[in-house]
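[INFO] parsing input record for Aminotransferase class III-fold pyridoxal phosphate-dependent enzyme
[DEBUG] input buffer:
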Amino acid sequence: MTPPDDAPRFNSAAARDIEYALHPYTNHKAFRETGPLIIDHGEGVRVFDDAGRSYIESVAGLWCASLGFANQRLADAAYAQMKKLPFYHAFGGRSHDPLIDLSEMLIQRAPLSAGDRPFSKVFFANSGSEANDSAIKMIWFYNNAIGRPAKKKIIGRIRGYHGITVASGSATGQPVNHKMFDLPIAGFHHVSCPHHYGYGLPGESEEDFATRMAQELEDLILREGPDTVAAFFAEPIQGAGGVILPPATYFEKVQAVLKRHDVLLVADEVICGFGRTGRYWGSQTFEMRPDILTCAKQLSSAFLPISAVMISEQLYQGIAQGSDAAGTWGHGFTYSGHPVPAAVAIETLKIYDELDLPNLVATRGAYLQKAMRARFADHPLVGEVRGTGMIGAIELVADKTTRAKFDATRKLGARWQALGQEHGVMMRVMLGEIAAVSPPLVISESEIDEMLDGMHRALEALGAEI
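[DEBUG] output buffer:
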């Protein structure tokens, strides 16, 4: 039966959402026509909408719900801390047990920093964007403190993602985060995306491609002046840029360039940290030795907002020196090290230890990678299937031989994502036609099969349409 012309297009909750909410990463003109998808509850690797429909979350929400969408231990940890100390700040040297315990646990689990030394100190924020923004301010403060006021420029990578504050958004290398925001601001530069499949020259090996990428970085540093370039930001795997794995020898060659010109390396582990790549840290998977490491998302399995910045002893000594000269280190957030998110993060790390998470991910990740390739690698619409551990991507192409992309105006990625939802999988298709695969780390092999089968059925439906 066709509804009458005057029938309401949306239920009450959806109508109120359209009326009052300003959603992130949303085309708001189109949104007023389509309305929201309202998620009501979660269980395991699934979320359920307000009509009772179930979806496997193929990207763990936003790369973050590592333990799924319900965990009694994390809920209990939050409640217990709320009853004991629901809030206190860390300004002026004040502290509390959750902040102290979590700082110690992170340092104990951290990879080695530059010079193969342990990390020294931890600073807490509320999101990956804030963590990377804080890292930039630390770098600027540090170079002022040690008498290098000109050494301030930051280098990121095209398709890199480091957040959306003014500074972290400037380090990010994605046009959608720059358009109409007047970003990047002065002092931020970008080198090429290190995607061999997408940007390698004909006949160019991964190693030769990595050499070319490292040379481009060195050329930029020399052109700007090594005495003005402060740091290089890099995700071990570029997540939101399309799950781009570094080519063989890439970080080895890049780090040699940075060392030659005394440029700090910041490892953005917001997506890769806490087992996602099959090691505890993506830095370990790709043999990075950063001066600064940022993390968030899986730190609390996304149950509450919290992020962290770990710094080397060299950085800490410079900041300590500068804070004495200035009278204080004038940076921090009301909720830095908030006791409730910190308590949840502590319990999250304990669960990771009990699961032996890196080994769990290495085993289950191998299953995921094999299953992805078996279903998608030979599909006529798929150019590349890539990934490691529990993170991967399926990239569509118009022509497998030439690697030509589809016309962006056809919006096939958005259509594939919508078809995935119809087949019971919450997908995230980025940058046109790249589907990320980054499910909760506790997903079972049978759930992996169910997820990939739904994505494959959606792709078959897309193929039939085009």
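[INFO] The longest helix spans residues 445-465.
[INFO] shutting down worker
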